[in-house]
Amino acid sequence: MILHLQHARHALTAAALALTCMTGAAAETPSPDYRIRETFNVGDSVYVRALKIEPDTNTIWVGTSTGVHEIDLATRKPRNTFTRADGLANEYVFAVGIDTQGYKWFGTNAGGASRYKDGKWKTYFPMHGLADYWIYSYANDKDGNLWIGTWAGVNQFNVKTGEFKKYVKELINEWVYGLDVDAKGRVWFATEGGVSMFDGKEWKSWTHKDGLGAPNTEQLPASSNTGLGTRARHDLTTMEHGQPTYNPNYSFAMHIDPQGTAWVGTWGGGVARFDGKTWKNYNSKDGLVGNIVYSIAQDKQGALWFGTDKGVSRFDGKTWRSYTTNEGLLDSNVYAIAAAANGDVWVGTRRGVAVIGK
């Protein structure tokens, strides 16, 4: 059954949001507990790059290449769809953040950062203090400030004063994709050139030479699609001549677990785990479905979910379970993951979102 759900005022340009309810067990289900239960289509040429759950309103925010959906988690119905006509600086949304005052932040591709609350919008550009027009991640620190990862360094935004601080040279590399904050208040950054950490006073960094990323056991070619060390803009294509490439310093995702362990998604080097002293890497030989890791989330049971170029994998510390297009994913590349309080895990790909649950 396909139930078309369209916002009363307008739909995304590519296609109206559609919910496909998948009945019965998915084919080749790898786990008796979890299966892909639903898929939400947003258009064949549309990419879902960001997912953010807002527990206070029971909402999931879906950032796509053609705008943002606000979806009611209980009913699965869209409350709103936002495009440039509504206040977004650019329809291509790569990151969604929610600050400590309840403002929703949408990081766009070349359009700066748009902030939204109670029907009111404000957009920030470099002229206001933003580090760059390309925004890829958000995280709140222990003092209530909002960190913003961009293609030209990071910002710390004071939500009370509205002031921006910018850090560029302190980072191992200025192209920042992933952000997270640990229980000690330290901020961790996944960049195109490795991982950096800021404890409020000092900066530390790590690269593949320190243990970040698994060895290139598949002998994949190095990618030429990189702006590393330059100001040249580039896309996020990880394939060349029809095959995946390898660049383990290039880190897409950052997640800090409750024990303070850092988990990093790399380009070709799988998932890197850092306990503060030692790096350990997991790749396809260990059970990870793909070695290019775009996204990471942790569910209420403590299991980690990794979005890769070949599907999504769940790791409970001992056992790996993977889900691919064979089980119902709309596309192999999983760019975003969000774990809901009820145990559902939402994954974003090209064409839409899938919900994995019991």
Sum this structure up briefly.
Helices cover 0% and strands 46% of the residues. With 358 residues, it is mainly beta.
Evaluate the radius of gyration: 19 Å
Which term fits the overall shape? globular
SS-based structural class?
Answer: mainly beta
- What does the average pLDDT come to? 88
Tell me the CATH architecture: 7 Propeller
Instruction: Bin the helical content.
Output: under 10%
Domain count: the total is: 1
Report, as a whole number of angstroms, the end-to-end distance. 20 Å
Instruction: Look up the CATH topology.
Output: Methylamine Dehydrogenase, Chain H
Give an overview in words.
- The protein is mainly β.
- The chain has one domain (2-217, 244-357): 7 Propeller (Methylamine Dehydrogenase, Chain H).
- The protein is 0% helix and 46% strand.
- It is built from no helices and 32 strands.
- It has strands at residues 2-4, 18-21, 35-41, 48-54, 59-64, 67-72, 78-82, 93-98, 104-108, 113-117, 120-124, 135-140, 146-150, 153-157, 164-167, 176-181, 187-191, 194-198, 203-206, 239-240, 243-244, 247-256, 262-267, 271-274, 279-282, 293-298, 304-308, 311-315, 320-323, 334-339, 345-349, 352-357.
- The two termini are 20 Å apart.
